[in-house]
Write a structure and sequence with these properties.
Strand order of the largest sheet: 1-2-4-3-5-6-7-8
Largest sheet: 8 strands, mixed
Distance between the termini: 41 Å
Structural class: alpha/beta
Number of strands: 8
Radius of gyration: 30 Å
Shape: globular
Helix content: 40-55%
């Protein structure tokens, strides 16, 4: 900005200076013929300087245009966008001429944005990769985070499934207009799949396909079967520590979030034993997120979202899971549906997801089972995502 203003002012000054010289030269021409030669030289020098200056300035302008044109092949934005009354963190990276993919993270409260550069960086040349820290998560939570995550704050600030899925629809409307896209590919993982089926069902005009990974069906119905399965696995392994935890917390559903957390930790323990995990290198924070403030906000947001997800009667927080029954509510879609399912997933088991998939009516649908894969991401999940995104947008 400064260089452009400087060029404008300087060129204008030299034009005025040239005009003065010209006027002086003409005056001398009429009054003193003996000094014409000297003033002529001054005039020529000034004119030569101006031409040289203007040419250099135009050359700089052309260089700037080339730089700007080169950047048209790349969009890279990280900023807050006001969605349904609150500022929410969104990153938009990739080739603006290519199809866009909106990612709905899991948790709830576990954004992908701090790790997107590792997971999806290679896709940015072929797509626009959009990460969104949902209401109650990551930088979005940090924007309005209280000094302390207290029981009073939890009770006074509940989260709902409809609230966050409506945020997702509003964000997609904004993105479609901002990026000039008729439709966007929608991807949801775990908790994000709860939002995904709602968004795809309510607003099929915004999406060209929905891809669900570790698709949630009915959290409440699964819990009893999962408890028995994980108990059997612990007994077979003679895992006294896990058996003691399971005995102490009893069978689900749980009235306190801490007991649900303990239950989930045992589940994850056995998922890891029977699957190929993601490499540790995937979980290196991007520099913009690797600071004390963001790390604290991320942890607090994770806790805040999790308590809202599973509920806690002692804290007076109702569970979002209570109203999730996709098999009952979301089986008809007007866009293609794809499910990626780990065969070693205990939290959202394959038998439940497959039964839901069989009930779905859609223009086209595909179920992709992955061996040696549990609930979370691993290389097979990532490879399958890459393949599907290209297939959908081919």
């Amino acid at each position: 900005m400064y260089s452009n203003s400087y060029n404008f002012v300087t060129k204008k000054t030299f034009c005025v200076y040239l005009q003065i010289i010209n006027q002086t030269f003409m005056k001398k021409l009429m009054t003193s013929g003996s000094k014409i030669s000297r003033f002529s030289k001054i005039f020529q020098i000034a004119l030569l300087f101006l031409i040289t200056f203007s040419t250099k300035s135009q050359s700089q302008k052309n260089s700037q245009s080339i730089e700007i044109n080169a950047k048209k092949d790349r969009i890279e934005e990280e900023r807050f966008i006001t969605i349904n009354g609150i500022e929410q963190w969104v990153t938009i990276k990739g080739n603006p001429s290519k199809p866009a993919i909106l990612f709905l993270h899991g948790g709830p409260g576990s954004p992908i944005s701090p790790y997107s550069h590792i997971l999806y960086g290679p896709l940015e040349k072929d797509f626009i990769i959009i990460q969104w820290d949902q209401r109650g998560a990551g930088k979005t939570f940090g924007r309005i985070a209280p000094p302390e995550l207290s029981p009073e704050y939890l009770k006074a600030n509940p989260l709902t499934v409809d609230q966050i899925s409506n945020d997702g629809i509003a964000l997609t409307e904004y993105l479609a207009k901002y990026l000039g896209k008729q439709k966007i590919t929608l991807f949801g993982t775990s908790w994000g799949s709860v939002l995904g089926v709602r968004m795809a069902s309510k607003r099929p005009d915004l999406f060209n396909a929905y891809v669900g990974h570790s698709q949630v069906v009915n959290e409440t119905d699964n819990e009893g079967k999962t408890y028995q399965k994980i108990t059997d696995m612990a007994q077979k392994a003679n895992d006294q520590q896990s058996l003691e935890i399971l005995k102490t917390i009893g069978t689900p559903p749980y009235s306190q979030a801490r007991n649900t957390g303990k239950f989930y930790r045992v589940i994850k323990k056995y998922e890891r034993k029977n699957s190929i995990p993601a490499p540790d290198s995937w979980f290196v924070l991007a520099p913009a997120y690797n600071n004390d403030t963001d790390i604290k906000n991320s942890a607090d947001g994770d806790d805040y979202s999790f308590v809202n997800f599973v509920g806690d009667s002692k804290l007076g927080v109702k569970p979002m899971t209570a109203n999730i029954d996709n098999l009952r509510d979301y089986t008809e879609f007007k866009i293609p549906i794809y499910f990626i399912q780990g065969e070693e997933d205990i939290l959202t088991p394959a038998e439940s997801t497959k039964a839901y998939f069989e009930k779905i009516k859609a223009p086209s649908k595909k179920y992709i089972p992955l061996a040696k894969t549990a609930h979370g991401f691993n290389q097979a999940v990532l490879d399958t995502q890459y393949k599907l995104f290209r297939e959908i947008n081919n």
